[in-house]
Predict the 3D structure of the following.
Amino acid sequence: MALNSIWARIRGSSGPPSLTRTTMLNLIGFATWIPVIAWFNLHVAELTVIDGSSMYPFMNADRDSSLRRDVVLNYKWSPQEDLQRGMIVTLRSPFHPETIAVKRVVALEGDVIKTKQPYPVSTVKIPQGHVWVEGDGPPGSSLDSNTYGPVSKRLLTGRVTHIVYPPKKFGPVRWWEHDRPLVE
Amino acid sequence: MISHLIGHPLRFAISTLKITCLAHLTLSHLLQVSPAQGPSMLPTFAVDGDWIAADMTARLGRRIKVGDLVLYKIPIFASQHGVKRVIGLPGDYVSLGTPGERGEDQMIQVPEGHCWIVGDNLPASRDSRQFGPLPLALIQGKIIGKILPWKDRQWASDGLLKIDSK
């Protein structure tokens, strides 16, 4: 069988394996794992470095005094399901398709929310399949739903469940402690 | 190679996992062939039975032009996909309504990072006229052609007509 003979040639027929062949086989063996790792990072979980200040002061608290950035665990299994107000999510920015943003879910489908500057109208009812996301920082520091409006849940890529670095903040994200009233 | 796998359940399971993941990544990032259903793209695609191929490297709206057919995630539903035609890109002015009906002269400018999509069969299509501009990030791929039925196979065309300059 042709396949068998190719395999035999790759494995080497006889004699002690040379260093080159061993290295090459190890490299090929590692390369076959790349699709599995990529799939895991896309659909199960990934460690993500947080850039920017839109979740300040909860994340990247010392943004002005050091180059250190927070590292979080981004859980990516079915991010659209069981969403709760207060959860921190990652999403594709509606204005910039190649950018992943991190925001907090403030209102869910059907909620009526009082918007902040610079949104043109003062209250919005969140349409079907959409959520309202905001950064934690002061108004104007984050490009969020107050600029681009409700976002489709299909844009969500994951949910930030744990902080990994720095060590003093290590642990689960206590999103349920966050309180942003829908209507004042 | 076969004897390398037969009789080694763990080795067999790991190889299956690797091949499944490779296939999944190929389908979601390179090329996908899938059946198309529904009346919204008549007469380009039939209501049922057509299989179409999509170039998934055009995901996130990369290299998308006006007139392209796109495979996209329907923004108001949790898990459905659709096929529609792009008629407006960021900065373009498009009609909110349907040609020949009331409201067709209401125009909006497509916002940054979005596109405007409609079906080829306007009366039977749920598209941007209902859910508004579509974020480019929801585009999964660009339709490159129809594969089945084999006798009707063809490349996708943008449907645009050159305006006679005379």
Notes: The beta strands of chain A are 45-49, 71-75, 88-92, 100-107, 112-114, 123-125, 130-134, 151-152, 156-165, 171-172. The first strand of chain A starts at residue 45 and ends at 49. Helices of chain A lie at 2-11, 19-31, 34-43, 145-148.
